[in-house]
Every structure is written in structure tokens, then in C-alpha cells.
Amino acid sequence: MPTPDEQVLPGSAGTSLGIDLERRLDRVEQVLRGGAFQPPPDDLHPTGDGDYFMIGLEFLRHFVECGGLEPGDKVLEIGSGLGRMALPLACFLEDGEYIGVEISRASVDWCTRHITSGFPNVGFSFLDIRHPLYNPAGTVVVDRSFRFPYEDAQFGFVFLTSVFTHLTRFEVKKYLTEIRRLLKPGGRLFATFFIAPAEHEGAFESFDQRFRFEQSSLHNTYYSAPPHPLAAVAYDEAFILTMLKRLAFGPEVQVHRGAWHSGESAMGNFQDMIVATRGD
Questions:
Q1: pTM, whole model, 2 decimals?
Q2: Is the CB of residue 105 less than 8 Å from the CB of residue 126?
Q3: Cα–Cα nearest to 57, from 170, 65, 171, 125
Q4: pLDDT tens, position by position, for the chain (280 residues)?
């Protein structure tokens, strides 16, 4: 399968991209739009809203422009789904490596057949984490002893999209603690959240009214209205930033507000995006 082959000038967060890196991103889009790949069937684990290829390409650009992703990075995705992010990354990470962890065995099997078969530096692993909506029969509980099955300081880039938006407050803390362990010093975390609007009091709705959040008994945490509180979860920005600071991320953390609440986003993202760097 074809992959980009231009010489790369690595980008960094907050700076414009070099011309060779722009060409690489353009080439990835050409490859994905060239007809060599087909999206997964609709009857598999849902991939979320939007075009399968375009959403992946959009986030690849976010990873590079905001997260400083480089073609030689070793990347971990937590919640890899049906490979919507993995496929453009497979084309981008010529000299790097990608590992996706997912709680749907069917999704892992599909990605292994259709993505890993063409990209040997891309792999997927099934992790049977219990979730009341997405894997209620799971055998792995996220408790104080939970660990992702990887050694310390392995990855240069760890990302999660639409994962923290379905986790409890305890699970968010545990995942962030584990991500800090897995990242190399200087490695980057890229994650999407629903960050509660600063001006709200009590319950609040999203701009498109698909989500209505109710404040829980825990400060800074807002769950979806019953009967499915984990269908969407929001957190105050201060809670997220405090957690990252305690885990020695920083000193600066990027916060890119999405369109889910106000209807506007400078970068075109729907959910809010957080980018943080692990300290030494």
C-alpha cells in the first residue's frame, strides 16, 4: 500500500508547518481518498459522527499542529475503535509505530485484518475493560490496581478522542496517572473532553441540544441526564488542569475549545481539545 515519502521537517505545537510536512499531510489525504481503502461496515461498533476518512484526517492535522506529532513517534491510542484515527496515522508514521487499545473485540479484529495487514508498524490490542454502555460484560475493572499492559516511558505521543467524555471522575484520574507513566519525558498527551462552560450554574445543555448535563454530587463533574449518565460526561476546566499539574504535566497546557457548547470553534473541532507535555 502506498505511503508518503517526502523529507519531513517536524512541526511543533503552536507553529506553522514546514512545506515538506504540509506535503506529507496532503499526500496522506490523497492516499486515503484514492480508493485503496474502504470504511468499515455500519453494523460494527459505531465510529461516531461524520465522514470516516475526513474525521481521521482532521485529527491527524490537530495531532501535528497542536500536539507536535512527528513521523518517528511511537504512538498509543486508547479507544482506537474502528481505526478512524489509526488509518491516517499509518500513512503518516513511516518511521514510527502505532498501537491501538480497544474494548470491542470485533473492532480490533476488523482493524487487524484491514489496517495491520498493510502496515506492519501498526497494531491493535483488545483490552476487556468494563463499561456500562460499551462493554457491560467486560472482565477488567478500572480500580486502584489497574494498569495498561505497557512498560514505563514507552511512548512519545498518547491520545484519546471521545474517551474521557464517557468516563467517571475516578477513571479519568486513573487514566491520566497511567498515561503519565507510559509517556517518555517530553512526550505529549492529546485528549478530547467536554469542558463545562465557565459561566454555567447547575445543569447546562450543549449548543445543538444533544447533550444535557446535570451536576453530580462530586464537585466539577457533570453527567448526562438519566437513564445513561455516562453517555456524555463533562468536567470543569480547573479539575482537568489541576490533575495534569499534580501529575507533572506542563508547565503550559493547551486548551482548544470546541463547538459543542458555543457553536463556534477556531480550529473546527467539536469536542474541547487538551494538549499537555510530560515533564522530566
A1: 0.90
A2: yes
A3: 65
A4: 333 222 222 333 444 567 778 888 999 999 998 888 989 988 886 656 678 999 999 999 999 999 999 999 999 999 999 999 999 999 999 899 999 999 999 999 999 999 999 999 999 999 999 999 999 999 999 999 999 999 999 999 999 999 999 999 999 999 999 999 999 999 999 999 999 887 766 677 777 677 888 877 777 899 988 889 999 999 999 999 999 999 999 889 999 999 988 888 888 899 999 999 999 8
3-state secondary structure of 22: helix
Which segments of the chain does DSSP mark as H helices, in order?
Answer: 19-33, 52-65, 86-92, 105-111, 169-182, 237-246, 259-262
Cα–Cα distance measured from residue 154 to residue 181, given in angstroms and rounded to the nearest whole number: 9
Q: Three cell numbers at 16?
A: 506553522
Give residue for cell 479539575: 239
* Residue written as grid cell 464537585: 219
Beta bridge partner(s), residue 129: 140
Q: Do the beta carbons of residue 245 and residue 238 sit within 8 Å?
A: no
**How far is it, in rounded angstroms, from Cα 26 to Cα 57?**
10
In the DSSP assignment, the letter for residue 112 is I
**Torsion angle of the four alpha carbons 77, 81, 82, 84, in this order, in degrees rounded to the nearest 10:** -50
The pairing of strands 233-235 and 221-224 is antiparallel
